[in-house]
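Hi,

I'm pasting everything inline rather than attaching a file, because the server keeps stripping attachments. The sequence lines come first, and each chain or strand is labelled.
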Amino acid sequence: MTIAPTASSTPEFASSTRTATRKAFMALFLRDLAVLRKQLGQFLPRTLLQPFLLVFVFTYVFPKIGQGVGGTTGGEAQFSTMLVAGVVGLAIMFQGIQSVALPMVQEFGYTREIEDRVLAPMPVSLVAMEKVASGAFNGLFAALLVFPIAAIVPATPVHLAIDWPVLLTLTPLACFMCGALGLAFGTIFDSRTVPLLFGIVVLPLTFLGAIYYPWKSLEAIPWLQVLVLVNPLVYMCEGFRAALTNVGHMSLLVVYPVMIAFSALFTWVGIRNFKRRVLS
Amino acid sequence: MPLSDIDEVIVTNSLTKVYPGGVRAVDGLDLSVRRGEIFGLLGPNGAGKTTTAGMLTTRVIPTSGEALVGGIDVVRHPTAAKQVIGVVPQTNTLDRALSVSENLYFHGRYFGMNKSTARAETSRLLDQFRLADRADVVVDSLSGGMAQRLMVARAIMHRPAILFLDEPTAGLDPQSRIALWDILGELHVDGQTILLTTHYMEEADALCNRVAIIDHGKLLALDTPRQLKQSVGIDAMVTVTAAGDLDQLATVLGESISAATSVEAVDGHVRVWVRQLSGVLPAIIEAAERNGFAVSDLSSTEPTLETVFISLTGKELRE
Ligand SMILES: Nc1ncnc2c1ncn2[C@@H]1O[C@H](COP(=O)(O)OP(=O)(O)OP(=O)(O)O)[C@@H](O)[C@H]1O
Ligand SMILES: [Mg+2]
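And the predicted assembly:
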């Protein structure tokens, strides 16, 4: 990403602070990569296990034991194809939570170790943006790891139909949106309230996020079909459905603008809260 | 103006912070810290020390007034200001996801060092701060003294013009405290400008070239520890050990030592507080012996900054 000169820069300091800011931003990103590498032993199971179980139970175990899923509209093969997009979307969203929100809650904890990073020579808002960038990177990494699982594990064939232009634009947007979501959640919740994050936020987001069924199929329950529109995961999963498969999906003319709007909202809320919490 | 030409490296003008809720934590503070000095902000809990340090280090936004570090306005140019300061906060802000050496390495990178410089500086500092054998452990396993040394090492790594330390020895055992004083003394010899806050008056006394005494966010006095102590009219406390009737000795000394402001006999000694120490010790021996007392020991101690604080506020600085 490019780094805009801050409003506070004047010609006197502008060039030296701009260089310092760029270097500090890169170094913070390298720090996050180093942490990712050190914690790969945790990252892999926590990233892979959930999608693996999801795919394994729904698209391997169920067909084998003769239990039907996917409703009356589609067969089993169609279900495993439909699930690919949801699994990828879910993996990206979980990175927003796991690699941005949860560490941030810790860094804001009682010793406030975040203050160390806030003292890096860069605007505070960019310290927050770096977290979004690193969350987006983790999301991308997770998506690449998870995609093969969703495509290979199912007992029934998965019919992929990749729309490259959509995939190559939607993936970065989805990763950014989830990084920003992590920033917003990480600054809204604190160490006392963070258990609620899973209990009352992440759980409904995932169960009502068009992961296990296309949004269109909710036509059968009109009030629910409208209600889930507040869930950013819906647009992401529908978008991946368009990018990866021929399964029917929400119009991309809706998906892109809404995802951009959610990204902007989460970024704005996240940076505002971040500043409030580190500056007094 | 280049930083090296600025002699007053910290300047505050009517610096004020009113927290939401109305607490006037810092109230019209005027300070100026000179290049190369160790400057102490001394005050009791809640005096506004952390808030002052917070404003000077860009983390607390002043309500009014002005603060310059290295000639840079910290409110208008926080990024530029952050480049010239090093900070050891009151709490342990080491990066728990990283090892000891990585804490230093990445700090160097945040401040623009390339890979090899950051590596070299890391190993140099690990040696200098006697942390080399802990280089690869997680920071949670460090003792309080080691963690504090690492925080100081990290804060000076990018060679800041000004080093801020907020209560650097609070919670350290006596050995670690002395070790940290030694480190700060060495940095001072190397020309490092240091601003530290403390509520230990011995610390301010032992370390600082000049001390600002603050309470309720207001500056009560600012001078060298020596001048501050002289300002309360006492230069030293002399303890006289002698055989015989000490009450009588106290009376004798009170009459014959003109510089004495008060004399009392306690715990087998006579204590004489004097305005001016010069010439007093021989005079005490002479007066005692003239009156038939054999002085077996004589020692003088300067009054503490505690005395100064009490005389300024009427209350004690609590440890
Ligand atoms: N973030 C904040 N919001 C509201 N009030 C605050 C905040 N931080 C400090 N205060 C108040 O401001 C006053 C000064 O606090 P400060 O932390 O600056 O004192 P201090 O001299 O550092 O004390 P200590 O020796 O306990 O560290 C106190 O009354 C404190 O309660
Ligand atoms: Mg404090």
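Residues 3-229 of chain B form a domain with the Rossmann fold fold (CATH 3.40.50.300).

If the labels don't parse on your end, tell me and I'll reformat.
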